């Protein structure tokens, strides 16, 4: 029997407070929800801050109510921004778990601009990201991309009196594929103005992304912690 592994990463040193547990009401027709989403084409790369269409994971989204959203994402067999893009192989049959981190990063940026009124001149940035994946439940890598349904909840929203859109918020995601939930993620988004972004980044504000070959990243196997066998 395969061991049950959970992966948890923090992309910054600071830790997010545990998000409040929300009571999930029974869905009267859960099988129809995914049918309203499309996995046929990706969203605008500008809304998720990617230079290449091949790096865009999100394909569709719709707002529900009370800060909840449904989003469609595709996890490719390999991913161009990942240093371990060969981790999804026939030998492991698992996607690179860093796709979970990239998915919530894109979800946070997209929700702010698409649904919450952040202008396209704003600079939403992810402050920190954490995620967990159960490799006994996650989808296996096939010959094509895996359609992933993301249930998103926005909480801990911060507003300023003179700003018509949120300046900060947290996002919690639940990942599922083929009707089976396999992971979760949480992240904090800060929406900066152009001026704030320039101050935040300093002389690097207009710099091109650092090539992936400059800073290596350890493989998930090197930094993950397996859960105790049950």
SSE succession = EEHEEEEHH
Got a strand count?
A: 6
Structural class: alpha+beta
Mean pLDDT: 77
Helical content stands at 10-25%
The gyration radius over C-alpha positions equals 18 Å
Strand percentage lies at: 25-35%
**Distinct helical segment count:** 3
Strand numbers in spatial order across the main sheet: 1-2-4-5-6-3
Distance between the termini: 11 Å
Show unreliable segments.
1-32, 82-91, 212-217
The gross shape turns out to be globular
Sheet with most strands: 6 strands, antiparallel
Describe this structure in words.
- The structure is a single chain.
- The chain has about 230 residues and is an alpha+beta fold.
- The protein is about 15% helix and about 25% strand.
- It has a six-stranded antiparallel β-sheet with strand order 1-2-4-5-6-3.
- Strand 1 and strand 2 form a beta hairpin.
- The protein is globular.
- It starts with about 55 loop residues before the first strand and ends in a 7-residue tail after the last helix.
């Amino acid at each position: 029997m395969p061991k049950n592994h959970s992966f948890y990463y923090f992309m910054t040193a600071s830790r997010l407070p545990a998000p409040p547990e929300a009571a999930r009401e029974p869905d009267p027709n859960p099988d129809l929800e995914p049918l309203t989403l499309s996995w046929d084409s990706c969203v605008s790369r500008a809304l998720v801050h990617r230079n290449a269409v091949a790096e865009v994971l999100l394909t569709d989204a719709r707002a529900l109510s009370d800060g909840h959203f449904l989003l469609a994402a595709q996890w490719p067999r390999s991913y161009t921004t990942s240093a371990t893009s060969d981790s999804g192989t026939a030998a492991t049959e698992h996607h690179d778990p860093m796709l979970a981190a990239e998915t919530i990063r894109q979800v946070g940026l997209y929700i702010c601009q698409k649904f919450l009124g952040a202008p396209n001149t704003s600079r939403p940035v992810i402050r920190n990201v954490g995620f967990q994946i159960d490799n006994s439940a996650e989808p296996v890598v096939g010959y094509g991309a895996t359609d992933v349904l993301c249930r998103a909840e926005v909480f801990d929203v911060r507003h300023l009196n003179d700003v018509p859109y949120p300046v900060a918020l947290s996002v919690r995601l639940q990942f599922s594929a083929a009707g089976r939930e396999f992971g979760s993620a949480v992240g904090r988004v800060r929406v900066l103005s152009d001026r704030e972004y320039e101050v935040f980044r300093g002389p690097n504000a207009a710099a091109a992304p650092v090539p992936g070959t400059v800073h290596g990243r350890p493989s998930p196997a090197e930094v993950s912690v397996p859960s105790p066998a049950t």
